[in-house]
Amino acid sequence: MIGKPGKKGCCAHLAGRLSGRLGRGLPVVLAALLLCAPAFTQADDQQVTEYRIKAAFLYNFSRFIEWPDETGESGQFTICVLGVDPFGTAIDNLAGKNVHGSTLDIRRLSTTAGMNDCRILYISKSESDRIGSILAPLQTRPVLTVSDTADFAEQGGIIRLKLVDKKVRFDINIDAAQRSGLNISSKLLSLATIVRDTGAAP
Amino acid sequence: MKAIRDLSIRRKMVLIIMTISAISLLVASAAFVITDRTNTLQSAAQELRTLAQIIAANSNAAILFNDRTAAEENLDFLKQQTHIQAAAVYGNNGETFAVYKKPGIDVTIPEPGMQPENIFFWKNHIDLITPIIQDNEQIGHVYLRSDIKQVEERLLLYLGIVIAVMFVSLLIAFLLSARLQRLITDPLLSLSATARQVTTDKNYSLRATGSDGDELGNLVMDFNEMLDQIQVRDNELKANKLELEERVRDRTIELEAANEELDTARQKAESVAKRMEYHAHHDGLTGLPNRTLLNDRITKSLAHARREQSIMGLLFLDLDRFKIINDSLGHAVGDQLLRVISRRLKNCLREEDTVARLGGDEFMVLLPNISGSSDAGRIGNKIIESLVRPISCNGHELHITTSIGISMFPYDGADAETLLKSADISMYRAKELGRNKLVYYTAEMNVESRRQLALETNLRKALERNELRLAYEPRSISRKTRLSVPRRCCAGNIRPWATSARPISSRLPKTAGLSSRSAHG
Predict the structure, then answer these.
(1) Would you list the domain boundaries of chain A?
(2) Is residue B181 part of a domain?
């Protein structure tokens, strides 16, 4: 992380965009990685690790949260990534795992259409400008919204991922979770920083 | 062991009961304690498992979200569990999420790494490993270490209770056994006491009491029956004994009477025997020892003298002219005279000397143990002097003398016979020498005595054969022409000396009792 924010941002964004634009093709990702190879230094390494952990977190959240019964009749548990995908293959590794009796499925979204089918919706930093508009229709929907964006929980998102002492930690807005009808385990809550709605919340 | 054998039966019973109770209690208590220890350990292990499971359940989120702080917070509650010495939460990939160590205790926790469920019972603690499972997948494990002080404390408490219970149980057992043993010992002791009393008092009318229906009761009954029989026999025995005693008493009385009779008879016989013995050895008239006793004493004295090489004297006394007194004054006077003479003789002698009457007017004095012939002569003279004093008998004043012949041992003979003969010969010599004399024996006397004896024998034979003839020989005619009376002489042709110059003294026939006419003498 020592004095190379430009490169880090360039490479990550490039990779994200490439993979976002060109679909989930592995060759594209590889090409992006190769292009960025000279810039793949310690900091990039760390970022990859960070997102691998975050990807694992997404999966682990599902283990401590219960969704209302009406959802998931499709037999699939879908994790959606909205905006530029920062996970890369790390999140694809989760696909096929069993969550609450359903098979885990990864879906990358470029628009908000189809958000309702997601159990977990990861909102990339690329969408930080329109968080409010994304969240608004999902407020009472059983969709777990997760994002790295600052003040995400305060804005009505349910879980915000953050780095504390180089460790991935998260905030949970229990009011938002309650609105969504999600039942979050106390174990998970005990690990989280609890956030309540600000005055803006209903 | 001997001390136990010597115990009374009561004590033995109590001891047996107590031993059995104690062993049963010990075994039961040991089983109880061992079981309890096992159970306690198991329940401690179970409690530990529960604890571990709580930790595991609480730690899964912390592991999954890599939150060490939360994991450590999960272990915070162990501070209240004083028996937990250490705890740790491990991830599968070698991460150690949380470690708890009880303050003040230095323990090492295991290395991280995937571990299956396990439990280890150590001497002082239990190690437990419990996997942390999330959605059927092990994501880590919990390590817990617990001391078993609680178990030991509990065990100690149980031991205390067990000992207390044992003590109380044994006390109750003792009290109960002390009472219950009487069921058995009382009849036995009563029986024993009765038996002892019967033995000491010999009273067979006693009976043992207390008969239950058991073997002891039978024993008491048998014992009493035995006593019955003994009593019957004892009574018979007593009756027999009384009868026997009576018989013995009767017999004793009879025997005593017989004994008395016997005693009297024996005393009579003894006195008769004594008298007879006295008469056999003493002269009836004078009470002096007779010839028999004298001979006996001479024999003894001789033996003594030979042994001691001492000198012994024999005095043969013949009263002179006693026959005249006897014939003229009567036997009564003679007898009295003899008694007086006896007393005087005795007075002349020592204690150990013996004077014996040989019959008629002959006496013999035995002087054992004298110093020489002079002693014998002194005593002989003393005797002669003692008779000088006249003796008055029935108004007669009598004068009597004695002739004494002395022979000495060992000079005049080696045996009693020779000595007596020597004394006899010397006494005759004394007579020849004129009576009232004391003559010692000499060897020539013996020759003379022999000659005379031979002459006497021949004379006796000649008389028998009528070979004697009277011969007269003329005596020389004196100057006054007086024809001497031819001397009467007996001569035999048997021996040359018969015609020898020496005439046979007319005294010889007299002494030999052959003279038809008694000469004076």
Answers:
(1) 5-195
(2) no
What are A119-138's pLDDT values in tens digits?
A: 899 999 988 888 888 998 88
Which pLDDT does position B520 carry in this prediction?
38
Q: Which residues of A touch B (CB under 8 A)?
A: 53, 56-57, 60, 63-64, 98, 167-170, 185, 187-188, 190-191
Structure tokens belonging to residue B102: 């009880």
Asked if A190 and B60 come within 8 Å (Cβ–Cβ), the reply is no
Most A-contacting residue of B59, B60, B63, B64 (CB-CB within 10 A), to test interface: B64
Contacts of A188 in chain B (CB under 8 A): 61, 65
How would you label B330-361 residue by residue, b for 16+ Cβ within 10 Å and e otherwise?
eeebbebbbbbbbebbbebbeeebbbbbbeeb
Amino acid identity of A199? Answer: G
Q: Check whether residue B331 and residue B242 sit in a common domain.
A: no
Other Cβ atoms closer than 10 A to B121: 13
User: Taking all residues of chain B, what is their mean pLDDT, rounded to a whole number?
Assistant: 84
pLDDT reported for residue A120: 92
Residues B27 and B50 placed together within one structural domain of the fold: yes
CB-side exposure of A78: number of CA atoms within 13 Å? 20
β partners of residue B144:
B87, B128
Q: Specify whether B159 is located in the same domain as B37.
A: yes
Torsion of CA B427, B431, B436, B442, to 10 degrees: -40
B186 in a domain, yes or no?
Answer: no
Identify the domain boundary among B441, B474, B506: B441
- Determine, for residues A187 and B60 on separate chains, whether the beta-carbon distance falls below 8 Å: yes
Residue A38 binned pLDDT confidence (cut-offs 50, 70, 90): very low
Residue B7's φ and ψ, nearest 5 degrees, are: -65, 155
Residue B472 pLDDT: 66
Opening angle at CA B175, ends B173 and B180, nearest 5: 85
Helix-strand-coil split of chain B, %, nearest 5: 55, 15, 25
Distance CA B410, CA B415 (A): 9
H helical segments located in B433-481: 443-465
β-strand A76-82 against A120-123: which pairing, if any? parallel
| Boundaries of domain holding B482 | 453-521
In tens, the pLDDT along B281-305 reads: 888 888 899 888 999 999 999 999 9
For residues B149 and B86, state if they share a domain: yes
B-chain residues within 8 Å CB-CB of A186?
Answer: none
Query: What is the phi-psi region of residue B8: left when phi exceeds 0, alpha when psi lies from -120 to 50, beta otherwise?
Result: beta
Is B297 in the same domain as B434? yes
What is residue B481's predicted lDDT score, i.e. its pLDDT? 57
Q: Per-residue pLDDT tens for B24-63?
A: 889 988 898 888 888 888 888 999 999 999 999 888 888 9
Which CATH number, 3.40.190, 3.20.20, 3.40.50, 1.10.3860, labels domain A5-195? 3.40.50
pLDDT over 70 percentage in chain B? 89
Write out chain A residues lying below 8 Å of B70, CB-based: 190-191
Query: Smallest CA–CA separation between B93 and chain A, in Å?
Result: 14
ipTM greater than 0.85, yes or no?
no
Lowest-pLDDT range, B215-224, B267-276, B322-331, B461-470?
A: B461-470
Which residues on chain A are in Cβ contact (under 8 Å) with B56? none
